[in-house]
Write a structure and sequence with these properties.
This protein is of the alpha+beta class and 723 residues long. The protein has 20 helices and 16 strands. The longest helix has 17 residues. The protein is elongated, with a radius of gyration of 33 Å.
């Protein structure tokens, strides 16, 4: 009988393959950081696990685990014979199979076997442990053990446990802290110091006593030892945050899983992802929205704020909603930074840039009287407050936000060219993506055009075609960068779990001069007076280029309001609207304009993040000396310019290709000798493609210093709120 048993044991031992520690696939936590690479934004994965080398675990912490679980680890054969015998006896007699196990046996059970307390499992554990102990060093086994055991609160491995319970690295654990974690190995939930403090502290003392017996802790140090402060269980655990930062993480994951990186299962790869989002800027974005919206109708109004670094395209701050998720099934968790909304007059800078590219100076004069009619629409175009300016310069017209001037200007230079300029500045394709993230009416359709016929009309001059807040932030960033577009991105650096950098992004690889530098400079020059005119100057009258915008819902109401502006170091877009297409009003029941609540959010945010930074100059004069337009642009006698004749390319909203650049960037004649472009002919559209009313902002009256902001004088009825 003994001979047969011996033969059986020998055969089983010889046929047992030992998996290598490297073959154990442990799902590791991916950590997303703010731009400092230190402050955590989120931990992602099914298991909170961060693998470290044994040299990255403090010696006191290692000794604490050995004292609690296997004091003779470095001298034993890797198995506990008494534990195996006890398990066998209990299995035969029907008792519990629980028996004492060495660290090697625990590692084998956790890494290679199930947790079933059966004799067959114990038998496999026996042979695997012996073989593992023969083939690997004790340090290798201990390292892998410390990376696999569960410490409670979702923490797998000693590194995650050290951060979860004490907010430190495993390398910095003290003997007292290490003893707390060592106690948890036996029963993480039972010995959690928050749920069972008496039992946890009693066993903690025994672990320290064992460390004294082994000579690992001095008796005097043991006598003076105090139970360390343990962080509360905040329940945060793993996963995408439910607040506004969760929307940032969504964008980070989409970027990592996109064509630029191509990762799959990002949340389990153990990556260290540093984003472009500045924690101070993000806090300022949330605070600005909260401050301004306090006391307002939060059930009606929605807000978005996006800030972009003009020098790199990195997103500095991102607010799309106050919550990414909610337990309330009726709650609105839409990411409004990605919502397609009509930009109103905040789109006019692209119209101006297109005209500048055609050799028309910012000092050119065009008809700004109101109302005016145009052949590509049946309804007249009206200025806010029915403002009149028979021959304003374009610089004056954009400061006063005259709709008639910019509708006529887009009509004059060609609506399709305006669309090309805007696409290039924003980095959007000729077509909107055919995806669920795009409204059904726009899905797969030509961007910045009528979804019904794919044509772009003069209405583009005053912003009646949808874009997103993030598009506007990027588009204005292009102007801030002297016409250089950088693909917007959220990821600055990706590293593996050991800190090895896999990829960095600084924006230089996507830099593309899509708008001529002189055009961008003159556009900026023309926008410098808007903030002060709209009563939204920055602290200390810091130079800033900006544009308000408001989209009219009907003859008396607004649906969307914008404030977008930039310095050379930051471009910020703020949008405000509603969940649907409801009229937007403030708590006093007054119409919201771009210079109102959105302007207030923009102003507070910009003042906060720019506080203490050097003042950056903006252009002090115009460069382009072409047509100064002493005459007035022709209106009703001219048909709209031709729309693009090329077939729309199927592109995503990545960096624009060279085909997206404005036509004016190539083969440009000397502006000083260039006449006003001749009219172009295209079939006349019978109706405005988007809506019956032009988007507007309140025009401020320089004589009375009154604007159409909430609490101030509104445009007189019944003039539509157009700007």
């Amino acid at each position: 009988m003994l001979v047969l048993l011996g033969v059986f044991v020998g055969v089983v031992y010889a046929s047992t393959d030992v998996p290598t520690p490297e073959s154990v696939t442990n799902q590791q936590t991916t950590i997303v950081y703010y731009s400092d690479g230190v402050t955590e934004m989120a931990r992602l994965g099914s298991e909170n696990r961060i693998e470290v080398g044994l040299d990255q675990v403090s010696e006191p912490a290692r000794n604490a685990v050995l004292a609690a679980e296997n004091r003779n680890f470095y001298n034993d054969p890797g198995i506990s014979f008494t534990g195996i015998v006890r398990a066998a006896w209990n299995n035969l007699t029907g008792g519990s199979t629980q028996g004492g196990s060495t660290i090697t046996q625990q590692y084998v059970k956790n890494a290679f076997l199930s947790s079933d307390q059966t004799f067959s499992r114990k038998f496999k554990e026996l042979f695997l442990s012996i073989k593992l102990d023969n083939e690997y060093s004790k340090d290798e086994i201990l390292e892998n053990y410390l990376n696999t055991i569960y410490f409670g609160r979702g923490a797998y491995g000693i590194e995650a446990a050290a951060e979860t319970y004490f907010g430190v690295k495993a390398a910095d654990l003290t003997a007292e802290q290490g003893a707390v974690l060592a106690v948890l190995v036996r029963s993480p939930n039972y010995y959690d110091p928050e749920s069972n403090p008496e039992e946890a502290q009693d066993r903690w003392g025994k672990v320290l006593d064992a460390m004294v017996e082994q000579g690992w802790v001095d008796s005097a140090a043991r006598a003076a030892a105090q139970y360390p402060v343990v962080l509360p269980d905040d329940g945060a655990g793993l996963g995408i945050p439910s607040g506004p930062e969760g929307l940032i993480v969504d964008q980070v994951l989409a970027e990592l899983e996109g064509s630029s990186y191509g990762y799959t299962d990002v949340e389990t790869q153990g990556l260290r992802v540093t984003t472009t989002v500045d924690k101070r800027y993000q806090d300022a974005a949330v605070a600005s929205v909260d401050d301004v919206m306090e006391g307002e109708d939060v059930a009606l109004l929605r807000e978005a704020l996006v800030s972009v670094d003009p020098k790199t395209g990195g997103v500095l701050a991102y607010y799309g909603n106050s919550a990414r998720t909610s337990e309330d099934p009726e709650a609105d968790t839409t990411d409004y930074a990605q919502a397609y909304k009509q930009p109103g007059s905040s789109f006019k800078p692209y119209t101006l840039a297109t005209a500048l590219g055609e050799g028309i100076s910012v000092e050119a004069r065009r008809d700004g009287s109101s109302p005016q009619t145009f052949k590509d629409r049946t309804k007249p175009v009206v200025n806010s407050g029915n403002a009149q300016c028979g021959a304003c310069t374009l610089r004056e017209a954009i400061t006063r936000s005259l709709n008639t001037t910019f509708y006529g200007l887009a009509y004059e230079v060609g609506p399709a060219k305006v669309a090309e300029t805007a696409r290039a500045a924003m980095g959007i394709g000729d077509q909107w993506p055919d995806s669920a993230s795009v409204p059904a009416a726009l899905r797969g359709k030509t961007s910045l055009a009528s979804p019904e016929n794919g044509q772009t009309g003069g209405a583009i001059g005053i912003g009646e075609y949808e874009v997103r807040p993030i598009d506007q932030a990027v588009g204005f960033a292009t102007l801030a960068a002297g016409g250089v577009h950088h693909q917007r991105h959220f990821v600055a650096r990706v590293a593996d779990g050991e800190g090895t950098v896999l990829k960095t992004v600084d924006g230089s690889e996507t830099a593309d001069q899509v708008i001529p530098a002189d055009v961008a400079s003159d556009t900026t020059y023309a926008l410098e007076g808007v903030a002060a005119y709209s009563k939204r100057p920055l602290d200390g009258n810091r130079p800033v280029a900006s544009k308000t915008g408001t989209q009219g819902l009907n003859a008396t109401d607004n649906s969307d309001a914008w404030m977008v502006g930039y310095t050379p170091s930051i471009s910020t877009a703020v949008w405000m609207g509603s969940q649907g297409l409801a009229p937007i009003t403030n708590v006093q029941g007054k119409i919201i304009y771009g210079s109102g609540l959105p302007g207030q959010i923009w102003q507070e945010f910009m003042d906060t993040v720019l506080d203490g930074t050097p003042e950056e100059p903006l252009p002090s004069k115009a460069i382009i000396k072409g047509d100064t337009g002493k005459g007035v642009a022709e209106r009703t006698t001219r048909a709209p310019a031709a729309t693009t004749a090329r077939a729309p390319a199927t592109t995503t909203q990545a960096a624009p290709t060279t085909s997206q650049a404005p036509a004016a960037t190539s083969s440009r004649p000397t502006r000083s000798s260039r006449p006003v472009p001749p009219p172009q002919v295209d079939p006349v559209e019978p109706e405005d493609p988007v809506g019956p009313v032009e988007p507007v902002d309140p025009a401020c009256d320089p004589a009375t210093e009154q604007c159409g902001d909430p609490g101030q004088v509104q445009p007189p009825a019944p003039v539509p709120p157009n700007d």
